[in-house]
Amino acid sequence: MSVKLTTRQVGDVTVIDAAGRITLGEGSSVFRDSIRDLSAAGNKKILLNLGEVTYIDSSGIGELVSAFTTVTNHGGSLKLLNLTKRVQDLLQITKLFTVFEVHDDEATAIRSFA
Amino acid sequence: MADNDRGVTPSVDASLDSTLDSVDSAEELVLEIAGQAGVHEDDMHKIGMAVREAMVNAVVHGNRYNANKRVRLTVGVDSGRLTIRIADQGEGFDMSMLPDPLADENLLRQSGRGILLIRAFVDRFHVRRLEPSGTEVTLVKYLSQSA
């Protein structure tokens, strides 16, 4: 299953619930298009919930980085929520924990945008 | 099945198309063998991911999706280790020329992390250039380290 993205609004924060795989091919392009559209539509506070993401490869990691730079370049901020142990490990290996702000509680994450 | 020239009895010796479907196929084939060899679930994920990254390199960067080029996958279990070889027919690359994905100036690059992940997820990783063209990568996971 490629990635499935569901978007919801919590105050002025756009929460994206991602589920499935973010890998080279369909999964990564769906992800890229969604982030680009949200940013272009003026959404500046984006919280990406990765709790139901079962698999991310290096292309998927690249998409996370691309999403981060896309949102940042539009004057917004993108934060991560509910990382699985495997995704945490990937961010450690790739040193991207130094780039992303990561939360494990949605309410706290939402407040952090204020 | 007969031993090959490096003393590893191959469980799989497959010639795969240069497509992303082959990436999935290779991952499934290797994980099937790893499962039969009793590899722990956490290590299964690491092996699968390392194979996936190596296959993407072979299909995308090596053979550049060329329908006339093949990717050869061999997998063997021997002497307490799982050995995976993936060979493309591309032009090859110089490892020393690859940007360091952990350097501060490269952290926000969209690509270039595949080999970093392979190195992190297997116990040994080796690259050699093939003649007249192509690249073969060897991934080794020691089974004794699977809890």
* CATH homologous group name of chain A: STAS domain
Derived structural class of chain B: alpha+beta
Strand order of the largest sheet of chain A: 1-2-3-4-5
Helix content, binned percent of chain A: 40-55%
User: In percent terms, what proportion of residues of chain A is strand?
Assistant: 25-35%
**Form type of chain B:** globular
Number of domains of chain A: 1
Series of H and E elements of chain A? EEHEHEHEH
Biggest interface between chains: A-B, 21 and 20 residues
The poorly predicted ranges of chain B are 1-5
Largest β sheet strand count, sense and barrel closure of chain B: 5 strands, antiparallel
Mean pLDDT of chain B: 91
The neighbouring-strand order within the major sheet of chain B is 1-2-3-5-4
Query: How many DSSP helices of chain B?
Result: 3
Protein model, in words:
The complex is a heterodimer of chains A (114) and B (147). Chain A has 114 residues and is of the alpha/beta class. Chain A has a single domain (4-112), classed as Transcription Regulator spoIIAA, CATH 3.30.750.24. Chain A is 41% helix and 32% strand. Chain A has helices at 26-40, 58-73, 85-93, 106-112, and strands at residues 4-10, 13-22, 45-56, 77-81, 102-103. In chain A, strands 1-2-3-4-5 form a five-stranded mixed β-sheet. In chain A, helix 1 runs parallel beside helix 2 (58-73). Chain A is globular, with a radius of gyration of 13 Å. Chain A starts with a strand and ends with a helix. The mean pLDDT of chain A is 93. By secondary structure, chain B is an alpha+beta fold. In chain B, 32% of the residues lie in helices and 24% in strands. Chain B contains three helices and five strands; from the N terminus they run E-H-H-E-E-H-E-E. Chain B has helices spanning 20-36, 41-62, 114-121, and strands spanning 10-16, 71-78, 81-87, 124-129, 135-142. In chain B, a hairpin with a 2-residue loop joins strand 2 (71-78) and strand 3 (81-87). The longest helix of chain B is centred in the middle third of the chain and has 22 residues, at 41-62. Chain B is globular. Chain B starts with 9 loop residues before the first strand and ends in a 5-residue tail after the last strand. Classes of the chains: A alpha/beta (114), B alpha+beta (147). The A-B interface holds A 23-25, 57-59, 61-63, 65-66, 68-69, 86, 90, 93-96, 98-99 and B 20, 23, 45, 49, 52-53, 56, 60, 101-102, 107-111, 113-114, 116-117, 120.
